Amino acid sequence: MLLNGDTECAVRGMIYLAAQVPGELVRGCDIAEYLDIPLQTLTNVLRRLVKRGVLYSVKGRGGGFSMYPGAEQMSFLEIIEIVDGRLTRRGCVLKMNACAQMEMCHNHCQWGRITNHEMEFLKRQTIGGMSEILFKNSLITIE
User: Is the overall model pTM greater than 0.90, yes or no?
Assistant: First the structure.
């Protein structure tokens, strides 16, 4: 599965915020700079997570974003669905007409298994778990 730009931004932003001191506000410009994401894109995406009660934000001087307690336990799939909507299989990935009818194309079953594995991975992988792997185990440093 390839994530679109907004979804990737949301997942990366959440992983970064999960590595911060709980309850401490992080300025949007600092997040954007660290993740190398345009500030406007980042703030638009993070505002969606604020509206859904995953993050909270404070505007103005001294403001920023922070995660609500427990948000680090959210799965990648939950974040993706907040940003992109519910993920569903939309027919044959090869766009074969046969799959829309009774008989399926040759690769239908293989693609179905791949899709199922992706969905299971996205359900199991938590924001906090990935943050811990990347930041707390020193694979990446926070400056």
Answer: no
Q: Name the residue range of residue 130's domain.
A: 5-87+126-136
Confidence bin at 46 (pLDDT 50/70/90): very high
Query: CA angle, corner 48, sides to 15 and 76, nearest 5?
Result: 35
For residue 4, what are the contacts with CB-CB under 8 A and spacing of at least 6?
84
In a domain, 92, yes or no: no
Q: Does residue 95 sit within a domain?
A: no
- Say which CATH number the domain at 28 has: 1.10.10.10
Phi first, then psi, for residue 22 (nearest 5°) are: -55, 135
pLDDT at residue 56 is higher than 90: yes
Residue 119 lies in a domain: no
CA 78 to chain centre: 8
Contact 48, 97 (CB under 8 A): no
Q: What is the CA radius of gyration of the chain?
A: 18
